[in-house]
Design brief:
The chain is mostly helical and 68 residues long. The protein is 66% helix and 0% strand. It has one domain.
């Protein structure tokens, strides 16, 4: 009998890698005291991390285009 594979669990390593990168680059602590404030702080870190990655990719594209 063939086993059914649950693909949701295969994404866990990706989520943990991203959280590790965010903590390493932006710090693990959040300053908010209420749950809503902590949630905003975490979302701000996630958005900041995403922007950092986008800027890095764009810099590689623009500055590295003429180099071989």
């Amino acid at each position: 009998m063939r086993r059914c594979r649950d693909y949701r669990y295969g994404q866990r390593w990706q989520a943990e890698t991203v959280m590790s990168m965010i903590k390493r680059r932006l710090g693990a602590a959040v300053a908010g005291r209420s749950k809503a404030s902590r949630s905003r702080d975490v979302m701000l870190k996630v958005i900041t991390h995403s922007l950092m990655l986008i800027i890095r990719v764009l810099a590689e594209v623009f500055y590295g285009a003429g180099q071989d």
